[in-house]
Design goal:
Elements: E1 13-15, E2 18-19, E3 25-27, H1 29-34, E4 38-43, H2 63-77, E5 81-85, E6 93-96, E7 102-106, E8 111-114, E9 119-125, E10 129-135, E11 140-146, H3 148-153, H4 155-167, E12 175-178, E13 188-189, H5 191-196, E14 206-207, H6 210-220, E15 228-231, E16 252-258
Parallel strand pairs: 1-15, 5-7, 5-9, 6-8, 12-15
Antiparallel strand pairs: 2-3, 3-4, 4-16, 8-11, 9-16, 10-11, 10-12, 13-14
Length: about 260
């Protein structure tokens, strides 16, 4: 059975991430107060100087400069071990533990999870959605990269399932944030995308609110609607973020971790 993307009133709250001092990044203001042990946010383009590009698999920036920015990000978060991977728009989620400091590349996947402090999970985006999943009761987190293909493949549901399998997380205890990404006004897609997401397919291309669709998937997976928030930032029509549809080859990083 399909549903139309706008068939029901939207019960999910919008929040506008706020900048912090130091590196060009924004953080969830409510989570910062509610979960002081949490490290969460999304980098931005930066100021008027060289773009703060963190794309490890792209060619927009010199590789050594990109690695230097990753080191800056680790120092800014206060964590010592970061996990990232080549993203393939699938639903694989890998579980990570502490170990040697530095940046580590996992096997290709679109999700990461951990229960260990001092581990920074990272996904790169430039219109896709960085999805942060937090279990404050069990101190477990998952970070997911969700474009429409990953969403259709079930990356969000898989992230919830991995936390349930590894640490017995109850979906009702989870908090989910859908970070800076392209908004529903800017993201026009064909009927096949609506169909793949289980939505009522229009006759031709129409705008799609991917974060709204993911929020409904989170609620269907058992996450309380009150615990689901959606970023007010759009990477395409807003300012300060890289946008693939806007012609940018650079990438920002959504990150998530826990302090000891």
């Amino acid at each position: 059975m399909t549903e139309h993307a706008t068939s029901d009133p939207d019960p999910f709250r919008r929040v506008r991430e706020i900048p912090t001092s130091g590196l060009p990044l924004v953080v969830h203001p409510e989570w910062g107060e509610e979960f002081p042990w949490l490290v969460q946010g999304c980098t931005t383009q930066g100021g008027s100087g060289e773009p703060f590009d963190l794309a490890l698999f792209g060619r927009a920036s010199e590789p050594r400069a990109v690695l230097g920015r990753w080191e800056e990000l680790l120092r800014a978060t206060g964590l010592t071990r970061a996990f990232h991977a080549r993203q393939v728009h699938g639903a694989a989620v890998r579980f990570h533990v502490r170990g040697e400091p530095g940046l580590h590349l996992a096997e290709p996947c679109d999700g990461h999870a951990t229960t260990d402090a001092d581990v920074l999970l990272a996904v790169t985006t430039a219109d896709c959605v960085p999805v942060s999943v937090v279990d404050p009761r069990r101190r477990a987190v998952a970070l997911l990269h969700a474009g429409w293909r990953g969403a259709a493949a079930g990356i969000l549901e898989r992230g919830v399932a991995v936390l349930a399998e590894r640490v017995a997380s109850d979906p009702g205890d989870l908090h989910v944030h859908l970070g800076p990404a392209i908004c529903g006004r800017c993201y026009e897609v064909g009927p096949e995308v609506f169909f793949a997401l289980g939505l009522e397919a229009p006759s031709g291309p129409e705008p799609l609110d991917l974060r709204g669709a993911l929020a409904r998937r989170a609620a269907a997976a058992g996450v309380a609607s009150a615990n689901v928030t959606i970023s007010a930032h759009c990477t395409r029509c807003g300012e300060g973020f890289f946008s693939h549809r806007g012609g940018d080859a650079q990438r920002q990083v959504g990150f998530l971790g826990m302090r000891a």
